[in-house]
Specification:
217 residues, alpha+beta, Jelly Rolls, 8-stranded antiparallel sheet, 4-stranded antiparallel sheet, 2 helices, globular, binds N-(carboxycarbonyl)-S-(naphthalen-2-ylmethyl)-L-cysteine, binds fe (iii) ion
């Protein structure tokens, strides 16, 4: 049984809102992400500092992320400045915080990581701590359902909770959950509704506040 629009607090500050995005909003986001995937910085598999290559493909807007820093230009891809973080996306982030927490408290995300998973891609357990702000992270899922693993703030191992994230789901991670370990052990191919605009695979958009400012001229 689905619980569209219900709010499930998985842990303090970690709120799952299944089916939050309408199919129309999902299509709009997929179209925007397709354009960002084409450029100015093309989507690619991030290369890790020790030479590993992520199975997930990523493109960033606002600020470019690579482990373990954010920069305005994608120096590990083509050196070009990333696309602006659009005002409409700030508004999506604020609506997400209202849905999860009941208010947005001036939330102003300035970057988003857009991750694309094919049927075999995974994301290992990690913490997101390259941001210099402890503001919440907003996650939007579109396409195939995945198993999302939400852990604890101390170890990358148990205890953790496995949750299914389906197309249209919102997840907000703030407060005591902001620095929890998390990952995506499995995508479930063929589970997407093609009406959302993705024929296959999974798209995840995470909005964040970097806490960074541009250097003065
Ligand atoms: C919990 N992405 O981009 S979204 C990531 O589905 C990332 O692509 C996953 O982890 C994905 O870093 C998971 C859910 C998520 C995102 C950020 C978090 C959970 C989080 C930050 C802190 C705690
Ligand atoms: Fe993460």
């Amino acid at each position: 049984m689905s619980m569209l629009g219900s709010r499930v607090e998985i842990a303090p500050g970690a709120v799952h809102v299944p089916g939050w995005l309408s199919v129309e909003e999902q299509r709009r986001l997929v179209a925007a992400c397709r354009a960002w995937a084409a450029g100015p910085v093309p989507i690619r598999h991030t290369v890790l500092p020790r030479g590993g290559v992520m199975s997930v493909q990523t493109v960033c807007i606002g600020w470019h992320w690579q482990p373990y820093q954010y920069t305005r230009t994608a120096d590990d891809v083509n050196g070009v400045r990333v696309a602006e973080f659009p005002g409409w996306m700030v508004q999506v982030g604020r609506r997400a915080l209202v849905a999860a927490y009941g208010g947005h408290d001036g939330y102003t995300p300035d970057t988003a990581l857009i991750n694309f998973y094919d049927g075999a891609a995974k994301l290992g357990m990690h913490q997101d701590k390259d941001e210099k702000s402890d503001a919440p992270v907003v996650s939007l899922s579109i396409g195939d359902t995945c198993t999302f693993r939400f852990g604890n703030t101390h170890t990358r191992t148990k205890p953790y909770t496995d949750i299914q994230l389906a197309s249209g789901d919102l997840f907000v991670f703030g407060g005591a959950s902001r620095y929890a370990y998390h990952g995506v052990p499995k995508v479930h191919p063929g589970t997407a509704d093609p009406a959302a605009g993705l024929a296959g695979g999974r798209l995840n958009i995470t909005m964040r506040v970097t806490g960074l400012a541009d250097a003065p001229l």
